[in-house]
Amino acid sequence: MSIEKMAMPQLGESVTEGTISQWLVSVGDKVNKYDPIAEVTTDKVNAEVPSSFSGKITELLASEGDTLPVGQPICAIDVEDGETPPKDLIKSEESMPGAAAPEEKDTSMKKRYSPAVLRLAQENNIDLKQLNGTGRGGRITRKDVEKVVAEGLIPAEEPNSETGKSTSGAASFADAMAQAAAVQMTTQPAVDEAGDVDVPLTGVRRAIARNMVRSKHEIPHAWTMIEVDVTNLVNYRNQIKNLFQKKEGYKLTYLPFFIKAIVAALKEYPRMNSTWAGDKIIEKKAVSISLAVAAEDALYVPVIKNADEKSIKGLAIAVDGLASKVRNNSLSPEDMQGGTFTINNTGSFGSIQSQPIINYPQAAILSIESIVKRPVVVNNMIAIRDMVNLCISIDHRVLDGLITGRFLARVKERLENISPENTPIY
């Protein structure tokens, strides 16, 4: 017997460190070669670390949540006689050799699914609860799922008892979001009580949860709000909306006017159109607007590419097209990629104030609230005006109050000065 130490793997060419998101073994556990022993998260991938030896775990050299550089030992194994260390000590689950673990009666790890297993099951509408895993403790491996798919024996997900519909969340945009969200959530299960209804997580909801938790965990949020008099905008839009719809076949909502003003201000203040990159801030050349669009069960954020190159008509067409894709469940991964700044039209639900969570890894998100008539003072007289609140959340690592205030003031100025003379639709 000899003690061998396993090191933090390099899960990608540019990866320099990894985080132990979950240990799958404890000190004293017996493991076989290729048994998964830990889940590791990097900024690029989630992967299972398989054991390079058969033996007994003698020491865990890192705790869950610890981030270690590539090459630093993570655990020690008392290796059985005859075992020789392989040249490549650690491989991710995606490239792990296909040696199946011996059959075990223990099923304590059956419900611990890796990101790759979850993704593959989602893509093929497989109910993992109906599979028997060949991994340690009954854990379902990627090869278990691939075997079921290859043999055509695909257990469909059980229908929801409330709706009678499948609970599968397989969708191309969900896959894209799930792959982008590299951090896994580790939570303690809640206890069901009488009368409670379990609502299975769809792939989309799972991806949203991961990205939101990552945003709040990693980004120091700051928030502010301004009010804007949009009486001129309301009057202008009311004058032309019927003619526009008759001519173009699209509804002319307020949203394209807001997007136009925001995009113009982003061009003047490019720091608002940035992302945090660890040791630097990247000001994005493209101005592509991520637009929060609500569906029945989730919130999607498709992207208007190069929004600064579009007229108000072009923005109206883009908004209508993305909304239609959300309703028809036809968004593609391409529709979800490339956003540099997010706009959230919470006013469509009657909201007058909100604190949005930043769409990671962007630096800001702006909510457009409801347009409401309010009494305000104009030239020392009380007047009824159409007012709207603009609420913005910012990444305080990238932005501060000064530049954010100037940006909002410019958006306000542009919106309050909308008129037929200086606001062309085409």
From TrEMBL:
A Pfam family of this chain: 2-oxoacid_dh
GO CC terms in record: cytoplasm
Molecular function per GO: acetyltransferase activity; lipoic acid binding
Ranges of residues in domain Peripheral subunit-binding (PSBD): 112-149
EC category: transferase
Keyword Cell inner membrane: no
UniProt keyword terms in alphabetical order: Acyltransferase, Lipoyl, Transferase
Domain Lipoyl-binding per the UniProt entry, residue ranges: 3-78
The enzyme's E.C. designation: 2.3.1.-
Cofactors (names): (R)-lipoate
Region of interest: Disordered: 80-110
Stretches with biased composition (Basic and acidic residues): 84-94
Cited PANTHER family: DIHYDROLIPOAMIDE ACETYLTRANSFERASE COMPONENT OF PYRUVATE DEHYDROGENASE COMPLEX (PTHR43178), LIPOAMIDE ACYLTRANSFERASE COMPONENT OF BRANCHED-CHAIN ALPHA-KETO ACID DEHYDROGENASE COMPLEX, MITOCHONDRIAL (PTHR43178:SF5)
Family: Belongs to the 2-oxoacid dehydrogenase family.
Protein name stated in the entry: Dihydrolipoamide acetyltransferase component of pyruvate dehydrogenase complex
